[in-house]
Design goal:
The protein is mainly α. It is built from six helices and two strands; from the N terminus they run ααββαααα. The chain has two domains: 2-94, K Homology domain, type 1 (Ribosomal Protein S8, Chain: A, domain 1, 2-Layer Sandwich); 96-133, no CATH class. The chain has helices at 2-7, 12-21, 50-67, 71-81, 101-108, 113-122; strands at 24-28, 43-47. This is K Homology domain-containing protein. It comes from Alexandrium andersonii.
Length: 133
């Protein structure tokens, strides 16, 4: 259900994420037994730097969460702990914060402006997946 949404028309959404985060992404077969995709869930392979992979992953998860609310909460621990300390300095990690409705709209800002300012000023990846930043 969310695969088409994440892929976008003619793959445009996926390609725009690849360009933004300098990654290569594609959906791959999970069981390999058939020539068609598993409709229960899809595995998305993301190649690139640790930072690029995480930025792309969070953007995809944000899109999936709008289509399948509650999905992120099921995999949150896996996402947060993935690639921990795997950068050159050994300090890579992910912190999260959960927002209430009124806080979320303030934190996003007009057309995501506040989110973008937070990213630029902190050097961190700031993405909202549901009510979690």
């Amino acid at each position: 259900e969310a695969v088409g949404f994440v892929t976008g028309r003619a793959g445009n959404f996926l390609r725009s994420i690849e360009e933004q985060w300098k990654t290569l992404m594609f959906f791959c077969e999970v069981d390999g037994s058939s020539g068609r995709r598993n409709k229960t869930y899809e595995k998305l392979a993301i190649f690139g730097s640790v930072r690029g992979r995480r930025g792309a992953e969070l953007l995809v998860l944000s899109a999936v969460e709008t289509k399948v609310p509650g999905y992120y909460s099921k995999i949150r621990d896996d996402v947060v702990n993935r690639d921990k300390n795997k950068d050159e300095s050994g300090t890579w990690g992910t912190d999260t914060m959960t927002f209430q409705d009124d806080e979320l709209s303030y934190a996003l800002g007009k057309q995501g402006g506040t989110r973008k300012k937070l990213e630029r000023s902190s050097g961190a990846i700031v993405q909202y997946v549901g009510h979690v930043a």
